[in-house]
Amino acid sequence: MALAFSSPAPRFAVSPSIPHTSPSNSFLITVPTPHRLRRCLRRGVKAAVAVDSPSAEGGGLPVESPNVLLEVNDLRAVIKDTDKEILKGVNLTINEGEIHTIMGRNGSGKSTFAKVLVGHPDYEVTKGDIVFKGENLLEMDPEERSHAGLFMSFQSPVEIPGVSNMDFLRMAYNARKKTEISPIEFFHFLLPKLEAVKMDPRFLDRNVNEGFSGGEKKRNEILQLAVLEADLAILDEIDSGLDVDALQDVAKALLGLMTPKNSILMITHYPTLLDLINKPGFVHIMQDGVIKRTGDRSLAKLVEKGGYAEISNA
Ligand SMILES: Nc1ncnc2c1ncn2[C@@H]1O[C@H](COP(=O)(O)OP(=O)(O)OP(=O)(O)O)[C@@H](O)[C@H]1O
């Protein structure tokens, strides 16, 4: 293995996925941090030459690459205070601006993975690491993770009696942005977001999710996401229980929220939402606590057609 570094430390980019390494491959790799270098090495890069500009001597083809937003390495987790292991070595990298989808049989560990990412107290990480925006996520409590830009929409959003949706959203916004926006100002900020998710402003006066239908709760989750302007939205079955029109609205709203900087990690059982979003993305199949296969939307189609047996046997 050959590694060469230019000096001073180069402004380097690493190919996001490096999917097809073989013993004879060599890559132009730019290495801004030891962390990113570790990632390349883990992925089996055998020869790496770093140069600080495409024109520098000894270089190869420059690799334009987006920034890594989330990196999960060999993540293992058990149910708290037990030795029941649910996550058995999950690896996943999400770059800025990407849409990732996790599919998998019931009970394969998808929601657990999502919950571990946001620091759910039911689980204990026993091995591996999670780096979010260059920071060690495992050292942050759930609130810090949220302030850092992680958002999770749960399968069954909780009701919060006695707290109006408007107050809740404003408090969440203030906490995330470390500001103190007035109710009037906030309302003006909120109006276009309500329109984007096609939500009736009357829902703002109701208590959070109290008495909301399943679809209304999901729409409210997207509103929260829009308000918090999260860097990574983790959406656990955001499409479940939605009628066809609502599904279209959610897809449109999600697309409207996408920027080159933020990313989405969706858990779903159906490829419909992916079709509606209609953007290139990654589909991962989780099986027994690990990501077994990764591909594009065609992988989701394969599952839809032949079930998971086809994937497992491949
Ligand atoms: N807090 C917990 N206590 C006991 N078992 C748990 C707990 N959390 C997860 N599990 C178990 O871990 C396994 C994975 O659950 P998880 O909810 O992550 O699956 P999933 O892939 O999201 O399933 P689904 O598609 O049905 O939502 C299941 O067998 C589940 O019963």
From TrEMBL:
One of its GO terms (molecular function) is ATP binding. The keyword Translocase does not apply. Pfam families: ABC_tran. Residues 70-313 form the ABC transporter domain. SMART domains: AAA. Keywords: ATP-binding, Nucleotide-binding. InterPro entries: AAA+_ATPase (IPR003593), ABC_transporter-like_ATP-bd (IPR003439), ABC_transporter-like_CS (IPR017871), FeS-cluster_ATPase_SufC (IPR010230), P-loop_NTPase (IPR027417). The keyword Nucleotide-binding applies. This is ABC transporter I family member 6, chloroplastic. It comes from Dioscorea cayennensis subsp. rotundata (White Guinea yam). The gene is LOC120264951.
